[in-house]
Amino acid sequence: LMALFCVYPSHIAGLGFLVFRLLGFAERFMLTLHVVSHRRLFKPQYWYLNKFPETVLAFSLGMPPGFYYIHHVMMHHCENNVFPYDISSTMPHQRDQQSELLKYISKYFTHAVFYLPYYAF
Fold it and tell me: Which of 8, 29, 75, 111 is the most exposed, having the fewest neighbouring CB atoms within 10 Å of its CB?
C-alpha cells in the first residue's frame, strides 16, 4: 500500500494508508506503548532506545511525542481516574450509552491538547 502511495501521490491514497495503519496497528501499538511506559525494554545504558516508541512510533500514528507518557503515567496513575483532575476519567459519563461515549471521546480529544501541557507544567 505504501508503494502505491509513492507511485500515485494523492490525498485519497494518503487517507487510505492512514486508515489501513490505524485499523491494522493502532490497537496493538497502544497496548505496546502502555507496556513500555511502565517497563523499559532496554538496559539503562541504552536509555535513548526506550524513548523510540513514545516519540518516533507514536508520532507516525498521529500522537504528539510524549503525550502518552504524560497522560498515562503522570496524570492517569497519579490522579487515579478521579474527575476533574484526570481528563480521561469516565466517572461523569454513563458507560452504557453510546451518546456518552461520543461525549467522552470528543472531550478527550479537545481537552487533552490544552489541559495536558498545563497539567504537566
Answer: 8
Model confidence over 13-27: pLDDT tens digits?
A: 778 877 888 888 888
Look at residue 46 in the predicted model and tell me its pLDDT. Answer: 92
**Rounded CA gap, 103 and 85, in Å?**
17
Length of the chain: 121
Cell 501541557 belongs to 117
CA distance 42 to 69: 17
In whole angstroms, what is the distance from residue 30 CA to residue 42 CA?
Answer: 19
- What the block records as the C-alpha cell of 62 is 498521529
